[in-house]
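Listing S7. Sequence submitted for prediction.
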Amino acid sequence: MKLNGKVAIVTGASRGIGKAVALRLASEGAAVAVNYRQDDGPAEALVSDIRGLGQQALAFQADISKGEECRSLVAEVLEAFGRIDILVSNAGVEFFGTLEETTAEDFSRVFSVNVGGQLFITQAVAPYLPEGGRIVLTSSVSARLAVFHHTLYPASKAAVSAMALNLAPELGERGITINAIAPGGTATNMARENGKFYTHPALRDLPPEIMLKTKTALQRLAQPEEIASAVAFLVSDDASYITGSTLAVDGGRV
């Protein structure tokens, strides 16, 4: 129960990695504010699961790409729980498209969520974090891979790693750490929908199990719970001297 008595906000928490993170932090003793953007059903189901672990949880609707909604979210969490100790910024959107077909609207959508959203929720939460507060942003292994027709998403995730690095000294003055995780392929709905696009177009008809053997040292996708374990480490006291870093959780991407 390393997080006993602490309150965590997890954005984009109702599915996939975000859901696994929320459950892991609750299992470590944290009360969890479950953020979702649209569909309250999965969020409320997760709240029920967390309460089944004996921890407090509430669902909060907010579009984190909008600064005013980030501020409202933080105010609601403070009213409900009285404090905030941990922020896990997980919400994000994927995008594939050629250079020619990428539009200004595509750029705005991807960067407003993946970069702006992570900046604005950090901005909203940071004033209320105590000394020893923890922030974990979500980058991606994509930031260091060359993939056909995948410019916007990796660019946005590279910006997140730069954000963690450059906010570290500012937040460090108050004893707050900020890091990022960079997941590789993970067994989520997003991976099922987009995984094949991470392969050269000429190889996309190969069986997925063959492609996995060539892409990672561990020759498989991560489970969401394995990504959550890395987050749990970064928000714990065990990671008290780690800040500004991006931790690759990618199974040894090759």
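Caption to Listing S7: primary sequence and predicted structure tokens for the chain studied. The first helix runs from residue 16 to 27. The two ends are 35 Å apart (CA to CA).
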